[in-house]
Automatic annotation (TrEMBL):
First-level EC class: hydrolase
Name used for this protein in its record: glucan endo-1,3-beta-D-glucosidase
Any one GO biological process: carbohydrate metabolic process
Catalytic activity: Hydrolysis of (1->3)-beta-D-glucosidic linkages in (1->3)-beta-D-glucans
Amino acid sequence: MAKTTRFFTLPFLLKVAGVIFQLSAVTSAIGINYGTLGNLQPPQQVVDFIKTKTTFDSVKIYDANPDILRSFAGSEINVTIMVPNGNIPAMVNVANARQWVAANVLPFHQQIKFKYLCVGNEILSSNDNNLISNLVPAMQSLNEALKASNLTYIKVTTPHAFTISFNHNTPSESRFTDDQKDFFTKILEFHRQAKSPFMINAYTFFTMDPNNVNYAIFGPSKSVTDTNTQHTYNNMFDAVMDATYSAMNALGYGEVDIAVGETGWPTACDAPWCSPQNAANYNLNIIKRAQVIGTPLMPNRHIDIFIFALFNEDGKPGPTRERNWGLFKPDFSAMYDVGVLKGGISPLPPINNPPINNGKCGSGMVTTTNPSTSTCRIPIGEGGGGAESWCIAKQEATDTQLQANIDWVCSQGIDCKPISPGGQCFDNNNMKSRSTFIMNAYYQSKGYSKDACDFRGSGMVTTTNPSTSTCPIPIAEGGGGTESKSGNWCMAKQEATETQLQANIDWVCSQGIDCKPISPGGLCFDNNNIKTRSTFIMNTYYQSKGYSREACDFKGSGIVTNTNPSTSTCVVRGGGGTSISNHSEFF
């Protein structure tokens, strides 16, 4: 939630940012805002928590962070992303907009259910005329870029902080201020054409009468009857919704959907009405409200509501309230119970590194049996003793232990996509197969040290291949069955044309591969060398398919080599995966 001046008198400032809900013809659902300005757990752990422990099915993030997006891959959670404010002027150029979509959306769209693309955040309140004047053109260009990529289901919008003259007693008389009518007319016309929602943050906390807090938190209070419409309001949230509708309708855009990006209540501030009890009462009733059809002025619309926020964010500046909107603490413990935890509130285990038993192989064992399966090949290692080895889950290890191992390893920068839904080694009924794959990946990353396979006594090193019929665990040296300690790579053939290589890049980027490293600003972007760019991205795809030689064919323009194709600025690592200097892992 951005810092904005607040008013308790008319006119008031309503902020709009973050995850949104759309007024649609489907059952309402509860979503959550995932901010990151604090000492939080790694994205993979956060996403696993949202997916497995809560009922939230929609999440909004405040950028397009690839680490977070990778964590959402295969989760079936709706995700909203944002173009940073500073990028807005550049997005007016359609070519730049298409490049942004290619780098931030195309690599993920097959694994992530994108919902909205937000263009900037609270631009009007920035008072930056360059951003304000370019906002709608940037939205138009990005909308065209999504259309060009056949991603028309992703709706373009922008969060606002704006002033509405809100009449507490007659919500139907609420209007946009005169100096902002032209701006919002252009915004609303875009939404009409694009069929996307107008976004508002419905914070009754900032618009309430301090002498009537109960009305703002759905508590017992005197109702308000609009003298124009004779509609009665028993809570301020509905009044704020209808005030927004009335302002839009006065400009001729009453049919445009409204999306609430944020709503919530802080547990602490410099006033007596901030408390866990009030926050729980407000958010519990907001969740109930999401199941109710319409408002007095919008009786046939459903409202999807996204609560602010998932976590308390101790890194946020400003008054105390800014750091205390979360439903949960950073360690995933609940601030209060509003019924969003599956199975109710229960103590969660502490998040700690897997302990080592004084350097001995206690819960983990080294084995010489390859744990790979026919579809999920687990890379071999030296096991600390020179023989090919793998780290596997012990037979007696419990599912709770193994799930904890998975959660921890995924938080350490290990790629967990292969064991996620849709991944080659995902088997929902075989925890041991999934945990063995990911424990072995961690074991490899630590140089095949036996200590790295301890996992509190739940892992062991073996020299027997642990593959199963559905999960072959890859031998690190690459495809074709040849084991080479130098590794294999997929690279562009010397005779391949630029047209072929650009087609390879475009196709791979559409398959869920992260193309940011070869985009402008990426460490492997070289505008004068398409072979470098195409080799990097072709090799990444080759890796994602388990080093299969067929995955390096590219209609005859690719070739598998044991000669490292890295350049001085773009390091392509063979066998165990591809990486670039000072850049996070990618698909």
